[in-house]
Amino acid sequence: MLAVTHRQRHCQAGVTLLELAIVLTIVGVLAALAVPSIIDRWQRETVELLAQRLMSTVSLAQATAQRRHVQTQLGPRENASWATGWALTELPLAAPDGAPSSNGRKLTAVALPTMPAVSLTTNLGRGTLSYEAVGYSRMSDVNGATLTLTCGRHRRNVVINAAGRPRICDPATSRGRCTDTADDDP
Questions:
Q1: Closest CA to 184 of 168, 50, 138, 58
Q2: Which residue spans traverse the membrane (predicted)?
Q3: Which domains does the chain carry?
Q4: How far is residue 91's CA from residue 74's CA, in Å, rounded to a whole number?
């Protein structure tokens, strides 16, 4: 009698080494192509975030001066250069003889990140931006001030007009309206 034998088929489970190498190569190439755009986006978002924080700090300086009837001062962090960041200080009322009674109370300080590298430049030099108790700015330049944040190819200007109002400006899209002498109201 003929014996019927059943051949059992074994299903292959898993992948071969060649298939794994091909998939890893494709994933590596795609990741390498994506890295420049990821870094570019990171730099752009960092500059935008810091510009918003700087504008908020300037607005806080003006609002604090108005509401508390004190003088506020925005300047380089820890009396270094603007490249290290910025600090907002509430200055004390002057003593009866006209001299300040102390150094003042620091309201906020922001350090610039080291990664990605961000630079902050200003036309104030090492100077500061101050607001009087009524909320008006005290600047030696009657045209205003410009603080520029740069990271990679991305740049944002925080432009402060002579009255002390800040605005954010993108030099790449503003068509020459990104300076402190430009008209603030479009």
A1: 168
A2: 20-39
A3: 28-169 (3.55.40.10)
A4: 10
